[in-house]
Structures are given as C-alpha cells and as structure tokens.
Fold this protein.
Amino acid sequence: MKKEHEYVPMFLRDLTLGLDVINARTTDVYTKEYDHKLSATAVKAFRDHCGQDAVVGCIHSLAFNVEAFGGIVKYPEYGIPIPVKHPLENVTEIPDISSEPSGKAKGAIRSYSLVREMMPDVAVVANIEGPLTKTGTITGIDTMIMHMESEKKLLNDIISLCLDHSYSFLEHLDADGSMDCVFLASATDNPDMFGCDIYKEFSTEHLKRMTTRIHKMGYPVIFHPHGVFTTPSTEKIFDETIRTDIDGFQFAEENDPSKIISMIDGRCSVLGGTDVVPTLLNGSCDEIENETMRYINTCSNANYVFMCSCSLHRATSLNNIKIMSDTVHRYNGRVI
C-alpha cells in the first residue's frame, strides 16, 4: 500500500469499552466514590489491546455532570450508565450550584492522573461535552428545545453554568499535568437535529468562548459535532465552526471526508474514520479493512488523525476494533 505520510496517529475514543477488555462490571468502577484504579487499569488494557497514540484518561460517563447537578443515573451491571432524572429539567431560574467537581468526577480526575503515570508516552485527552450536548444531559432534550423557543436567556445562562463546571474539571487536570488536549464530545451540537440557525446561535457562539478559554490554559481543542456538514445548506456554518479557532475537527458518519478536507483548507487538523455503525458493529474483516484504508487514503495528505466515527462503548466487538487498529498499524509499518 502506498504511504503518503510517514505516520498516521490513531486516537480511539474509548469511553467504556475498556471494561470489556478486563471483564469488569460497570458497577465495579461506578462505585459511590468511583474506582479510579480500576478505571485507569481498563484504559491501559484497551490501549495495550490496540496500541493507539492517545487515550481518554478515564472510563467516562455523563454521571460526572448529571449527579453533580443533582440528577439520578442508572448503572446497568454490564451496560452504559443512563441518566434517569435530569437535574434542571424544571428550573425557571439559575440555581446556586458549585462548579467544583464532586462525587464520581473527583474519582475521574484521579484516574487521569494515574493514566498519565502509567502511560507517560501516550497522549491523554480530556473528554468533556460541547455546549448543547452537556446542557441537554442536565435539562433533558425536550426542556432544552422548549427553552430554544421561548426562554433563550435562561438557556444561555444554563449553558454558561454547565461550561463553568467543565472549566473547573479541566483546571484540575491542568494543575495535575494529566492532559494534553481537550476533546469536545458534541453529539447534540448538531444542525441535523435543530437546524443551522440554532447551531449557529448556541453551539458556535459558546464554542468560540470555550476555545478561547481553553487556549489560554495552553491546550488545543478538538470539536466533534454530529450532523452532516458537506451539503450546500451546511457549508456556511461549517466555515463558521472552523473560524472559532478550533485546532481539530472530527467528522461524524455520512460526511464526505474529501470535501471536509477541502473546506478546512489546512486551518485545523482533520479527525475521523471507520463507522462504528454498521461497520465496526457487524462488518466483516474485509469490510473493516477496506473502509479503514479508504479513510486513510483519502485523508492522509491532510493534517490527519485516524479515529473511528464516534466514541466506543461496551459490547462493541473487540475483535473488530483490533482488525481496524491493526490495519492502521500496518499502514504505519508497525506490528502490535
């Protein structure tokens, strides 16, 4: 296979799949205090399995946000934690809530520190949520939509409250020296869901502020909204997204990677790759290898980091993930 660049870095954004590698229960790590040692062990085990260049520093969950704001989360024994009560779904004014990390979030910070200690040569990525994505977990999506229509000031105030909580989390990681960059996981920052005007009004406006603040801390910012940005109706908001001064853009499924690269035009890094659904979920070996190489061949002339299309969670085939990661390593001339 022809190599355009010397090396394509790989970041597999595992949030819970590492627990499958060590055959641990979700409830083993999500104890009352959060088992940071088990979390870090799972992160390292998944990295040992796939040999990626960067990892998220903990087994991640929306529980860090939901419980800190007074909500309730359900923990399936071998599943993904699920919010069952959104803490601010009925508020009419901003409550007095501390931005300081509490509960399981404090354990997550300790996990980042331990991951840094265990893997000093691997980049550690801080996974936090984008503006509407975090707010949706705190208010619930239906409430957030109602605020978009009739309570925009309240919604902006809630977003600011949520982001203050994220900044505090990042400041702890910064003080501990346990992160190298910040990844904004932004599934609900999605023009396909709410339209381009809402995306521009809330997502990009707050993204500008987030990027500026995180840059002042000295870290690059990667933004991963969902939605298709390669249509005539979304090209303008894509350009506005890049002009928020983000350092990397991860495209989701159904985008045209060659067009993404063309529109970015060298202004930031490009991240993306093999689709989690359906390819990694139930694709054949040949399908996984071929799709992985299509992305690499399309993107390797850009400032490119290989990722699969979204985060990885429990019950995704570890064998299929390994086929994908081995394909990247073969391109790089490595054997893991």
The chain is about 50% helix and 10% strand.
